[in-house]
Amino acid sequence: TVDTTEALSQMVHEMRSAGTFAFDVETDGRDPVRQHVVGFSFSTLPGRAYYVPVGHSEGTQLSLPDVIHEVKPLLEDPELAKIGHNANFDMTVLHKYGVQTQNVTFDTMVAAQLIGHNTLGLKPLAFQLLNQDLTPIQTLIGTGKKQITMAQVAIPTVTSYAAADADMTGRLYRLFKD
Question: 2, 13, 85, 111: which could join 52 in a potential S-S bond, CB 3.0 to 4.6 Å?
Answer without folding.
Answer: 2
